[in-house]
Amino acid sequence: MNPLRTALAVGLCLGAAVVFAEDTTPALVSTSPDRPNPAEGNASGDWNVNSRYIVESVEFPDTQEADFSHRLRDRIQSLAGDKLNYAALRGLAHDIRTELSAHSVSFRIARGSRPDYVRVFFDVDRTHSAFDVLVPKFVWTSGQGWTAIGEATLPFGHNTITVGLLSDGDDLVERFTGARARLTHRWGSDHPVRLVFDFEDYHEEFGRETEAALSSAPGDPGMYHARMDLAPRMEYAVTRELTVSAGTAFESMESQLPGAPSRSANAMTAELRWQHDEEVSEETHKTARISWTLRAATHTLGSDYVYARNELTASWTGVWGRHRIDAGFDAGLISGEAPLFERFVLGSSTMLRGWNKYQLDPVGGSRLAYGTAGYRYRILRAFYDVGAIWDPRRAASPKQSIGVGVGSSFGILQRNELLVAVAFPLQQGRMDPVLIAGMNF
Amino acid sequence: MATLVLCLAAYAMALSSEDLIITPGPDALRLSAPRVHFLVGQSLSHLHDGMSVPFDFQVTLFSGSRDRQVWRTFERFVVSYDLWEERFAVSRLSNSRRSVSHLLPSAAERWCFEQIAVPTAGVARDAPLWLRLEIRSEDQRDGPPVLADSDGISIASLIEVFSHPVRRTQQRWFMNSGPFRLAEFER
Asked: Between chains, do A49 and B78 touch, taking CB under 8 Å as contact?
């Protein structure tokens, strides 16, 4: 039996089994009035006269307890028993809104059951969040064309289904056009586990440079005109900062040659994600992220390709008021013979900006080393990229680029940002500017 | 009795136009607006819900035919309502910071006006003058607080506040007084 069909059948059965679990426990976090007061006081800048009172309870009249992650629940519980901290409440409201994709989250304070104690009520407005349409990425790069991704998200119970249409000529060697869908099931706060099913179905187009490069060196990796993927995985939040995931990916590629059989790249997948947020004040915060991903395709899963793809990504962001500094690092290694969609690419709208990916390597590389640094002040941006992709039989040739641009939501795009940048590849003797424009890239 | 006479004299010298009353002082004009109440409506509702509500004041003194700005100042007052004592507290954030508490609504409003002084040094005594006062409330529920930091709020931030049109979530009061001359206070 075709492994892809097997995986699809298993996935649908598992999905149906887990989709309708509900926890209807009302969310109420309270503390006894006799609980010792840590007497930590409030953040500076809190001018509210009620800041001297102690939080008796934090309540969510219209929201169920199981809707929150365990990390958010920890924060909610930590408020009870402390003095009223408006900065902490505002931060919590912001994070609840993000996690629940709510339209708005507000809070109000009322007298507690005894003097000097108060109750905090959070009102979560999810009326506009039942269905959401997003544009995760829309970008045009001179010389490389445009990329557009549109997604619609529908949460229901503990599940979220996302369906997207896209044409992406930016992230991979090839342009892939088609549809993708994701079904996510999340268990309650006491079981920080998520089950995720990804499905993708794309039509593929390769550039002339890629076709020329592959025709002069026939054999694997070969081109394909369509690609379909089903990837179930399980995610587990070990701690507030560390998440691990494991799963499989069943990828089927239809050859460009008439009558040739389709080939598969079926892999075991694993990922480690670590993120640390440090919020010094409302205007000063830092975020560090490190992730490692592995895709290991083996004959055991019925794969025609056998390879292991490792990628290590690290980033750091610091915000001080209107100033922001970003730094990032990416390293990748593919051992074995991987299909084209797995190979690393530089010269996109986000990595080694300003360079043409087809000039760097029209078939991508099996080795990647990349670093970036950026600075923002209000809407102004400047960045410096450096990196190289190469193969074992070809020496690495590091490239650099610099760029400046502007980006803003202009007060009307809410969470979206319009970005326009000019990037300059640093080549000996000349600088050919590349214009990058779009949204959310 | 002497206090009463002084008060009456001051009242007699005050120039009122609509709701904004100007009272002369030794080196500055003082403002009051007993008929204007800004602790009302949506802002009052938020205060009763335990939220603090910032009120931004912009005072501008014009001369000539209202085309020359002589002087301008910005002040921010943050008002909160004590849920247990049922009284208001006010903090003045810009310039020299001060706070009061245990006030009834009218007293809290009056205290805000009392903190504003319009200096008269260097202003021509016979020049026609106009005074404009604008008050805006800031709704913190619909966005991040505009409070700068523990040191208060900068003038630049307040200028930015008044450079934007009034948002749906804001309340606004607008008062004018004039024309008047400083010499009229000296008669």
From this structure: no
